[in-house]
Amino acid sequence: MTTTVTPTSPAPGHELARIRSPLTAYRQAFAALLQRDLHVLLKSLPLFIVRTIMQPLLLMFVFTYVFPKIGQGIGGRDPGEQVRFTGVLVAGVVGLAIVFQGIQAVALPLVQEFGYSKEIEDRVLAPLPTKMVGVQKIVTGMVQGLVAAALVFPIAAVVPATAVHLRIDWPVLLTLAPLAGWTAASLGLVLGTRVAPHNVSYLFALVVLPLTFLGAIYYPWTTLGPVRWLKIAVLINPLVYMTEGFRAALVAGVPHMALGWIYVALLGFSVAFTLLGTDGFARRVVT
Amino acid sequence: MPAAPDPNAGSRPGPPAIISTRGLSKTYPGGIRAVIGLDMVVRAGEIYGLLGPNGAGKSTTIGMLTTRVMPTGGQAEVGGVDVIARPAVAKQVIGVVPQTNTLDRAMTVRDNLVFHGRYFGMSGREAKQAAAEMLERVRLADRATMPVLALSGGMAQRLMVARAILHRPQVLFLDEPTAGLDPQSRLALWDILEELHADGQTILLTTHHMDEADQLCDRVAIMDHGRLLALDTPTALKRSTGAASIVRVTADGDLHRLAGALRAEVDGVEDAQVLDGQLRLRASRTTGLLPRIVSASERAGVVVSDLSIAEPTLETVFIDLTGRDLRE
Known about the structure:
The complex is a heterodimer of chains A (287) and B (328). Chain A has 287 residues and is an all-alpha fold. Chain A has helices spanning 22-43, 45-70, 79-117, 120-123, 130-158, 170-194, 200-213, 228-233, 238-250, 259-285. The longest helix of chain A is centred in the middle third of the chain and has 39 residues, at 79-117. The model of chain A is unreliable at 1-13 (pLDDT under 50). In chain B, the strands form 3 sheets. Chain B has a 6-stranded mixed sheet with strand order 6-7-8-3-9-10, with helices on both faces. Chain B has a 4-stranded antiparallel sheet with strand order 2-1-4-5. Chain B has a 4-stranded antiparallel sheet with strand order 12-13-11-14, covered by helices on one side.
């Protein structure tokens, strides 16, 4: 695929672009598509921030500020339990923020673009293989997921009424966050290419809600022992591995799933979603 | 069914082929045969028009040549690149204006062009310069910083043309470029396409407007039910009808009987057929024709309420080939 083709000689008076080596063209187009997404993101940065922090902010506010203040017993009544719960929730909220970016940055725009705006049709004509346009969408979603995760940390530090004891395991955090971003963005690509515009409401009811409520955000997965069937059933939920992973990376003293399983599962989900998603993307744009 | 026309019919000798297809076919899942064994040659610098009614296979043909529709048979080369084997490379040499507005709504008019240039490997400076020149060319320079949603249909279409040629493609594809445009915007777009043509840009367009094909195209291929029925210059196609004029008669009464009467009695009427509730006559002579038609109709006991005479058009050619109207 690296040979250069000699173009047909142009008509007089009309100078045509020369055919560039495919690999150069792919690389340049991929980078430019990323730049385009970044350009659009920066243009709407305030909107992006609001959309990203509202959910974590409200979650943290209600569960770790209001509840302890009014003596509502979430996470236990004694202060030690509450500190521990805040830690549990911080990790959950970081995972949640990343998964939401996968839906908001990748899935929803694609549903729209395939459905009626058709804008994607032009980017598909950029000089690179169609599937790489899908991969580029994943990278954009991943970057947005990481930015979202970074925005959640200040909230976690400031909002809770109790002290927050984060003990950051940097090697784990720096490997796990991109991996979680990849999983979420590629899941977004799968959803975005398989869901028709008129089914978006089902997307929320059937995917987003179960994903989040059963994603071990409010409780560590390891504590699900008493509901054994649920403990096993939620293993198909990629968010479980993210929140468990962030617990390992951020919080001391909270039990979590073995790290090895977390990496294996997230990597497996990411690869599978990427294959499914890029395939779905190609099917949607080439008939 | 007439035999497929010679792909080089009506072509000036000399310029190299920019598009060539052999036996190009597309059968959609479910068995719909949209394009059947298409042999086609488009030469450098020409405007080639695919004329046909909706569903003729024109858009599928453009789709296959622009990597968006996967052919189920045959071969296609554009700008020396095998479109089927190397679609990602072929995208470098094509520019496409699709039927729907695919402008990037998140960006301004200018940024739509700048980023397009970047997709095609231009540096930031090159892209900005090319965008500025192009905005002048399609008369949108004063709209450069507007969001694309603020553009009228005609302006959006011109911007899409600008975007499609920004990277200097070997062929510009336009799928029904003036569908839905008001007459003034249509003329503005025709002007731009004619300027591009004068600069040597090779253009393939589809249309179901005979005027558009007649006015713009060097060669017109008439397409129906997935096949090419005729191909030549517009002038040669119209001449091929063999008629000096086409008369349309609107009348109350038995049109079929009238057709028989006019064929038999009026000198110069070669053929008469009922189409769309009108009687359509092909005539070899024009002089004194209309009065003779009116009096012959009266003798046949039919009251003529309207009568029109025109030179043969590409629509005439289409009707001769298919027995149907282009609008049907």
